[in-house]
């Protein structure tokens, strides 16, 4: 019988209480990992913790707001202290995205929070856990949730620039840490039918596979890339899981 993908391994998952972060946490749990779930919403965090434990995994929940300066540094310490060793980081946390936060309307506070959670915390977590992995000689893996809008503007400049910065952070980490056997990748989802996303009625018609994604569709690829069984030679990659959405061209004629 094949071993589970993450037997005897540990993972820190941020944004673990909802959406893709929760789906990844559950997938890691089902594949044998021991987890620390980091989430700002205590109700969501406790619910995710119960689901992960029901899946058979040992896990703890930590309520944390990564928009607070210094929180990411504390999370590195908490993860190492609670797990003993950290084999994997999944950075899925991101503040809520509101369509009204356009170029001329987004506030300084909203801009700062988006960059603090996505980019600065992503850097602090990546560098801090890399130091731990190098010292402990762990062949670690890191996975960052980015966005198609890292390369395509949508008049949400705080969100697009934070995700674009995160994508380059992934490449910097991957290049610097590869010699230590640490792999770092970006997972870029398309339109996901979850959370506060309100798609237009015709959005699915613009996706070659004909439907919006479920969180589990994205998580499945993330688990493969995190695993040494399937992803052992993948690092510095931007892995797009969007049902072909990025292929849509508004100049194309409608295909019957």
The portion of residues forming beta strands comes to: 5-15%
Rounded radius of gyration (Å)? 18 Å
Largest sheet: 7 strands, parallel
Tell me the series of helices and strands, N- to C-terminal. Answer: EHEHEHEHEHEHHE
How many strands in all?
7
Percentage of residues assigned to helices:
40-55%
- The tally of helices reads 7
Shape, principal axes of CA atoms: globular
Distance between the termini: 47 Å
Summing up helix and strand content along with how strands pair, one would put the structural category as alpha/beta
Strand order of the largest sheet: 3-2-1-4-5-6-7
Q: Low-confidence runs (pLDDT<50, min 5 residues)?
A: none
In short:
The chain is α/β, with parallel strands linked by helices and 256 residues long. The protein is built from seven helices and seven strands, in the order βαβαβαβαβαβααβ. The protein starts with 9 loop residues before the first strand and ends in a 15-residue tail after the last strand.
What is the strand and helix layout of this fold?
Elements: E1 10-14, H1 19-30, E2 34-39, H2 42-54, E3 59-63, H3 71-83, E4 88-91, H4 108-136, E5 141-145, H5 157-177, E6 183-189, H6 215-226, H7 228-231, E7 238-241
Parallel strand pairs: 1-2, 1-4, 2-3, 4-5, 5-6, 6-7
Helix pairs in contact: 1-2, 1-6, 3-4, 4-5
């Amino acid at each position: 019988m094949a071993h589970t993908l993450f037997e005897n391994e540990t993972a820190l998952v941020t944004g673990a209480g909802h959406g893709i972060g929760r789906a990844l946490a559950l997938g890691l749990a089902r594949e044998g990992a021991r987890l620390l779930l980091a989430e700002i919403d205590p109700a969501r965090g406790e619910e995710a913790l119960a689901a992960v434990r029901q899946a058979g995994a040992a896990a703890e929940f930590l309520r944390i707001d990564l928009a607070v300066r210094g929180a990411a540094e504390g999370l590195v310490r908490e993860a190492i202290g609670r797990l003993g060793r950290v084999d994997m980081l999944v950075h899925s946390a991101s503040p809520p995205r509101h369509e009204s936060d356009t170029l001329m309307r987004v506030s300084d506070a909203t801009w700062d929070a988006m960059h603090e959670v996505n980019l600065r915390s992503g850097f602090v977590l990546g560098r801090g856990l890399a130091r731990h992995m190098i010292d402990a000689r762990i062949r670690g893996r890191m996975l960052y949730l980015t966005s198609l809008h890292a390369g395509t503007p949508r008049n949400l400049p705080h969100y697009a620039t934070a995700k674009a910065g995160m994508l380059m952070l992934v490449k910097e980490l991957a290049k610097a840490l590869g010699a230590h056997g640490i792999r770092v990748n970006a997972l870029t989802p398309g339109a996901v039918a979850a959370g506060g996303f309100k798609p237009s009625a015709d959005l699915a018609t613009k996706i070659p596979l004909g439907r919006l994604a479920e969180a589990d569709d994205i998580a499945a690829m993330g688990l493969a890339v995190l695993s040494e069984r399937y992803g052992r030679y993948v690092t510095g990659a931007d892995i797009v899981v969007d049902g072909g959405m990025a292929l849509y061209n508004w100049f194309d004629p409608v295909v019957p």
